[in-house]
Specification:
The structure is a single chain. This protein has 203 residues and is mainly α. Helices cover 70% and strands 0% of the residues. It is built from 10 helices and no strands. The protein is elongated.
Length: 203
Amino acid sequence: MAMIVTDVILTLAREKAQDGKVGLHDLERISALISGGSMVLDAAYIRQEEACRKVHQMPKGNVGARSNPFHRLMVRPFEHLLAGDGMVLQRGYLPHYFEFLEHALEKRFEAFERHCRTIIQALMVIHGNNLTWDQFYADSRTVKTLQGALKLLRVYMDGPEGQRVWHACMMRPMGDLPQPAVGQVNHIRQVLLETARGLEAAE
């Protein structure tokens, strides 16, 4: 655990560094944390880790569990199409999308979830309760995660199995919501593919 905390402190120093230098105020904060001893650090880390787990490990497929960082990340490309005048698909259909992601990514789905929670935990060490989703989205580790996940998704969706599973998952009613139109589902698919290609080109 002490090694993990050390890594967290190094991450904090790197995040605060500008031109390879860390300010005196930030060094004082890190020094104050270290002066408590490794046992204090370990206990604090355990408490934070448990708190983060309670917040971010929500039931799969629960649309209300918006604190699942990987779910939020994978909705990000078409989030603007879920509300407002330009709404294409209601949020109530998102459980079907998450189900499709599990089919497409298989075992890697849970690995991506764990990785996103790790990023959240590292960012919370820096920002605490002031952490915003925009900060999570802007983090280079998050961008790289989205690139990797969408690349796998694009390859799967371009194949016949991916197209079949996409429509099987997405073309279903949800509770009181009727079956969505083909045009709605295809629009979301196209946005995902275009975003994936754009991120791949930027690599």
